[in-house]
């Protein structure tokens, strides 16, 4: 939220988490309880923000935000869950701030809900909230969705607060993860560190007096929106203009928040290797990498920006020929309609994170490309790879594998592109954001329910 001369207004954060919550609230109604910055009133009705639902603000001081959000959330849980334990900055003061912030969130929720409400707790920033709500005797049902990967006990276990975090999560009635592998990892942690009984089918944690249902629920996208936008004549025209301006036969695209988990540096190395080894493609391809600024409070993200800038400069310097570079780098958040025009313009999407809970960019690209089949090159380590098996899968840690997959993608015959894209499209069109939100709410209301395949 930002306060301007006209009052408070909402700025949309770019990223999978905020987008998913926004969609869920628009579809089903409710109140978003959130930290929304300083100097904002406690209650923000839709008329003041332009959003479709009210916001109830949780107040956190600047220092609390820096230790709780930039500290414990982004420099401990984020790297740990993405399997980068050596990037964790494990500090007691971060943990204290995390606990205090979770208490503030829980107190605001407790003051807001009644018996028939459903409380949807979102992500790794709020692990302790379900346990706090249960401890306070809050009568509503509580579900957690965990957007990022959940690591195995060998990795999660390095945290000295592992028992508190797991116990906090188990305050919920429902815990949903992106993939079956995340569910298995979570249950293995519960077995190993809490020594409570766990049932595998359906995955359930048996606590004294109650069960917690644990499930995989892969997040989807608003398929109809992306599909309709991508086929709209204005978008097609914009995409044609982009292609013309890029001036190449084949357009490759990468779209990510600036984050070390997204494998941007590794992807650039793979592309550089492709240009080195395949000189015949140098003047025929253009790789557009869109990178959205992210978490610039965290020093490591500032360092990453420098490393990416250097790689971009090196590749452009080595391979620009007669004023045309095979690499275009955009460090910005594009308006949604422009992003869709890029999806529509790209023959190949390079979605190669080192680790990702799901990755919505992969699904958005598919929804935009079924009419004019493109090729999705997808990391084996993205949650999306579980579902999107017809993509060209790649190990993003291996530059030679990246080079080879780029070569396969740019030379793929049209019939094979179309066959793969049709299969991918069916999967993305089935497990949409509407299916995901409805399934989550259905399971939260009735944990014994079985999921329908479509919303
Ligand atoms: C987290 C998890 C999980 C990107 N650039 C622009 C832009 N975007 C939008 C995309 C997409 C979203 O941001 C990115 O979502 P991802 O899933 O790719 O990645 P994270 O932000 O890391 O999301 C992830 C997700 O939560 C959901 O559960 O899939 O694993 O890490 O929607 O379209 N949007 C606009 N301009 C851009 O330049 N407007």
Task: Describe this protein with a few key phrases.
455 residues, alpha/beta, Rossmann fold, 2 domains, six-stranded mixed beta sheet, six-stranded parallel beta sheet, 17 helices, globular, binds GDP-alpha-D-glucose
Task: Characterise this structure.
The chain is an alpha/beta fold. The chain folds into 2 domains: 172 residues, Rossmann fold (3-Layer(aba) Sandwich); 208 residues, Glycogen Phosphorylase B (Rossmann fold). Helix content is 47%, strand content 17%. The strands form 4 sheets. Strands 6-7-8-11-10-9 form a 6-stranded mixed β-sheet, with helices on both faces. A hairpin with a 2-residue loop joins β1 and β2. α1 crosses α17 and α7 crosses α8. The longest helix has 21 residues. The protein is globular and about 70 Å long. The two termini are 32 Å apart. The mean pLDDT is 92. The structure holds GDP-alpha-D-glucose (GDG).
What is the fold's blueprint, element by element?
Elements: E1 2-4, E2 7-9, H1 16-28, E3 32-35, E4 43-44, H2 46-49, E5 55-58, H3 62-81, H4 92-112, E6 118-122, H5 129-135, E7 141-146, H6 153-156, H7 162-169, E8 174-177, H8 180-194, E9 198-200, E10 203-207, E11 210-216, H9 223-231, H10 233-246, E12 250-257, H11 264-277, E13 285-292, H12 299-319, E14 327-331, H13 336-345, E15 348-351, H14 360-369, E16 375-379, E17 392-394, H15 399-410, H16 414-430, H17 433-445
Parallel strand pairs: 3-5, 6-7, 7-8, 8-11, 12-13, 12-15, 13-14, 15-16, 16-17
Antiparallel strand pairs: 1-2, 4-5, 9-10, 10-11
The structure holds GDP-alpha-D-glucose.
């Amino acid at each position: 939220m930002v306060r301007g001369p006209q009052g408070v207004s909402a700025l949309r954060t770019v990223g999978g988490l905020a987008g998913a919550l926004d969609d869920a609230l628009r579809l089903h109604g409710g109140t978003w309880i959130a930290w929304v910055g300083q100097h904002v009133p406690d209650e923000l009705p839709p008329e003041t923000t332009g959003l479709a639902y009210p916001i109830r603000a949780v107040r956190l001081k600047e220092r609390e935000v820096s230790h709780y959000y930039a500290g414990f959330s982004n420099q401990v849980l984020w790297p740990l869950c993405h399997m980068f334990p050596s990037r964790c900055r494990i500090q007691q003061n971060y943990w204290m701030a995390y606990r205090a912030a979770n208490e503030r969130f829980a107190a605001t929720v407790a003051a807001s809900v009644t018996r028939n409400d459903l409380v949807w707790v979102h992500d790794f920033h709020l692990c302790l909230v379900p346990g706090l709500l249960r401890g306070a005797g809050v009568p509503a049902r509580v579900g957690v969705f965990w957007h990022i990967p959940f690591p195995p006990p060998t990795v999660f276990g390095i945290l000295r607060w592992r028992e508190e975090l797991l116990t906090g999560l188990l305050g919920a009635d429902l815990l949903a993860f992106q993939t079956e592998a995340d569910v298995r990892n979570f249950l293995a942690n519960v077995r190993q560190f809490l020594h409570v009984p766990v049932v595998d089918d359906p995955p359930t944690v048996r606590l004294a007096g109650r069960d917690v249902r644990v499930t995989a629920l892969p997040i989807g996208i608003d398929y109809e929106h992306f599909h309709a936008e991508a086929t709209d004549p204005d978008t097609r025209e914009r995409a044609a203009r982009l292609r013309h301006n890029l001036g190449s036969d084949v357009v490759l695209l990468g779209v990510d928040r600036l984050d070390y988990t997204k494998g941007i540096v590794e992807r650039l190395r793979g592309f550089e290797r492709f240009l080195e080894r395949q000189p015949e493609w140098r003047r025929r391809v253009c790789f557009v990498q869109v990178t959205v600024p992210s978490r610039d409070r965290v020093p490591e993200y500032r360092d990453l920006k420098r490393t990416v800038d250097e790689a971009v400069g090196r590749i452009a310097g080595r391979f620009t020929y007669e004023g045309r570079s095979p690499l275009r780098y955009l460090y910005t958040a594009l308006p949604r309609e422009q992003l869709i025009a890029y999806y529509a313009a790209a023959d190949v999407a390079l979605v190669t994170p080192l680790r990702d809970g799901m990755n919505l960019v992969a699904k958005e690209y598919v929804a935009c490309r079924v009419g004019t089949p493109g090729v999705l090159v997808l990391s084996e380590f993205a949650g999306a790879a579980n579902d999107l098996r017809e993509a060209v899968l790649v190990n993003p840690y291996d530059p030679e594998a990246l080079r080879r997959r780029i070569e396969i993608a740019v030379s793929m015959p049209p019939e094979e592109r179309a066959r793969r894209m049709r299969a991918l499209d069916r999967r993305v069109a089935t497990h949409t954001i509407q299916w995901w939100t409805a399934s989550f709410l259905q399971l939260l209301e009735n944990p014994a329910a079985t999921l329908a395949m479509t919303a």
